[in-house]
Automatic annotation (TrEMBL):
<protein>
    <submittedName>
        <fullName>Formamidopyrimidine-DNA glycosylase</fullName>
        <ecNumber>3.2.2.23</ecNumber>
        <ecNumber>4.2.99.18</ecNumber>
    </submittedName>
</protein>
<comment type="similarity">
    <text>Belongs to the FPG family.</text>
</comment>
<keyword id="KW-0238">DNA-binding</keyword>
<keyword id="KW-0326">Glycosidase</keyword>
<dbReference type="InterPro" id="IPR035937">
    <property type="entry name" value="FPG_N"/>
</dbReference>
<keyword id="KW-0862">Zinc</keyword>
<keyword id="KW-0234">DNA repair</keyword>
<dbReference type="InterPro" id="IPR000214">
    <property type="entry name" value="Znf_DNA_glyclase/AP_lyase"/>
</dbReference>
<dbReference type="InterPro" id="IPR012319">
    <property type="entry name" value="FPG_cat"/>
</dbReference>
<dbReference type="GO" id="GO:0034039">
    <property type="term" value="F:8-oxo-7,8-dihydroguanine DNA N-glycosylase activity"/>
</dbReference>
<dbReference type="Pfam" id="PF06827">
    <property type="entry name" value="zf-FPG_IleRS"/>
</dbReference>
<dbReference type="InterPro" id="IPR010979">
    <property type="entry name" value="Ribosomal_uS13-like_H2TH"/>
</dbReference>
<keyword id="KW-0863">Zinc-finger</keyword>
<keyword id="KW-0511">Multifunctional enzyme</keyword>
<keyword id="KW-0479">Metal-binding</keyword>
<dbReference type="InterPro" id="IPR010663">
    <property type="entry name" value="Znf_FPG/IleRS"/>
</dbReference>
<dbReference type="InterPro" id="IPR015886">
    <property type="entry name" value="H2TH_FPG"/>
</dbReference>
Amino acid sequence: MPELPEVDALVSFLRSKVVGDFITRADVGELSILKTADPPLEAISGLEISGVSRVGKALIVEFDGLDLVCRFARAGWLVWHEDVPAGPVKMGKGPLGLRIHLASGAGFDLSEAGTKKNASVSLVSDRTEVPAIGNAGPDALTIDEDQFAAALADSTSRIKTVLEDQQLIAGIGNAYSDEILHAAKLSPFAPASGVDAPALLETMRKVLGQARDSLIDLPPAKVKAAKKRGLQVHGRAGETCPVCGSTIAEVSYADKSLQYCPGCQTGEKKLSDRRMDRLLK
C-alpha cells in the first residue's frame, strides 16, 4: 500500500496540475470503491478543486465544503492522463476504480490491480467522518518527541507493529517500517516499550524525509519504481545487505512478509519464519 513518501509525491504532483481546475465528470469503474452515498459522487461535477492534501496514507482532493478522500489499497495507485480516454468506462473491467475528468481535458484514474478490491473513495463534508482520518494518530513526519515516546512506552506490542499502527503514528506501512528498523538497527520483534524513542524518532524522520525528497518531483508513473530502487531491505530477501554484507532474511505471514538484515538488526540470529514471532533458539 502506498505510504507517506509516495502519497506526498502524489500531493505535490496533483497540486501543480489540478488546483483551480474544474471537475466535469466522475466515472465509476468499480462500485465497491465508493464508501459514501450522501452527498452523491455527482455532487463534485462542476466544482473547482481548491486543494490537495494528505492525512496518513490517504490522498484528499479538496473542494469548497467537500473532500474526496481516496485510500489506496495494497495494489492501488493513481494514473495521470494529460488527455483522458474518451471511451466509456465499463463497470468491473480491469483495474480502474474511479476516473476523474477535468475541464482542461486532463484527469486521473484511481486504480487497483488484482482481484481483491479494497481501495476506497469517500465524498464527505467533514473528512473526520472517514474513520481512517478521524482516528489517525499524529503524522509520522510531524509527531513530536513526547507523543512518539508515549506511543512506544504505552504499547505491549513489537516495534514494527507500533510503527504501522495508524492510530498511533500515521503514514507508515510495511515497507517503510522495515526500512526504518533496518536503519535504526532494531529487530522488528523488539518490544516497543524498550526502544530508545528519541533515537528511533530521529531515524524515522531521516528515512521518511529522504524517501519523500527522492520521490517528490516525479510523475505518478515513475514513483513506484523509484521507491523500489531506494529500498535497502524491504522486498530484497536473499540479496546482500548494502550496509554489512549479510543476506537479507524474511518472515512470511498469510497476507504479507517483512524483511530484515540479521547482521544489522538481530545479532546474526534468524527470526522464526512462522507465526510464533520469536527468535529461533
